[in-house]
Amino acid sequence: xxxWNSFQAGTRITDPVLSQIxxxxxxxxxxxxxxxxxxxxxxxxxxYYVFNDRSTAVTAEVDYxxxxxxxxxxxxxxxxxxxxxxxxxxxxxxxxxEERENIPAGSGINPEAxxxxxxxxxxxxxxxxxxxAFATTAANYATNHSVALVDGTSTxxxxxxxxxxxxxxxxxxxxxxxxxRAGSPALNTAIIPYATMSFLRWHxxxxxxxxxxxxxxxENSDVISLLGMEGWNVIIPEVQNNTAAIGQPGALDYLWGxxxxxxxxxxxxxLKTPAYGYQFTRNPLTVDRWRExxxxxxxxxxxxxxxxxxxxxxxxxxxxxxxxxxxxxxATDQAAL
Length: 337
Known about the structure:
The chain is built from eight helices and 14 strands.
């Protein structure tokens, strides 16, 4: 009896081997948990504490105590509760008997493993799009925690690389100051899209600063150093996304566009630990499979249950542990990419 018919039709099983393939799928070029570390939870929905206003800890109080009197009593930290709600994300794919029969003997092709990798890739792109949508929306940030660069004045690229007023390092330093003033730990993570980084390597002010080290050929590491990000976790997402409608010719574009995101991401998630955001994960990537005889196919399904939440926010629920820089590439250069 063929291996794929070795379980009862319609019976769904969780396959640990295929699940491990899914978990181990190499998500190169993605941001993912570098910006939203995963917190494993057991409940689909629950409240968690958010320390909204950090100004309480640095507010001076009347602390003089006269002899024979009680010390001035102050209120404790005011906690406001927010709630996560994990949602399942799942895709499935049929592996047909005909497909198996056409596999050459000894080829090493594993259609189930290939299906798992394809499904995992699509689920990962779906999560990446959700992360990007949140992280690049200026309305999600506190006042003065985002800036839109202006074509012809301050974008980080032009066709002749000589835009007056464009100073990437100054923008980054301003972002650090804004976050620090708002009570955020020092920013330590940067998302610099591939296209933006490619222009930064040729930015005249960075070239001028680095000419004695690299001349006119800056590497990514040089740019990171010149921008004052040494020791940071700098992600340069290269992942592309097909924006064409189903059935139409492919239209690939960089998923992260030209928006730069700066953030504080802790070494590990934890209670009372500030962060840009967390991914509350109820069920990690798992793989189900079952037999459908009437289709002469095995069905493989990859599923994932999570919720993305902003953590380091002010009293209005706006991000203060991060900073957003949009429109880093001039429209002329965008059209020429």
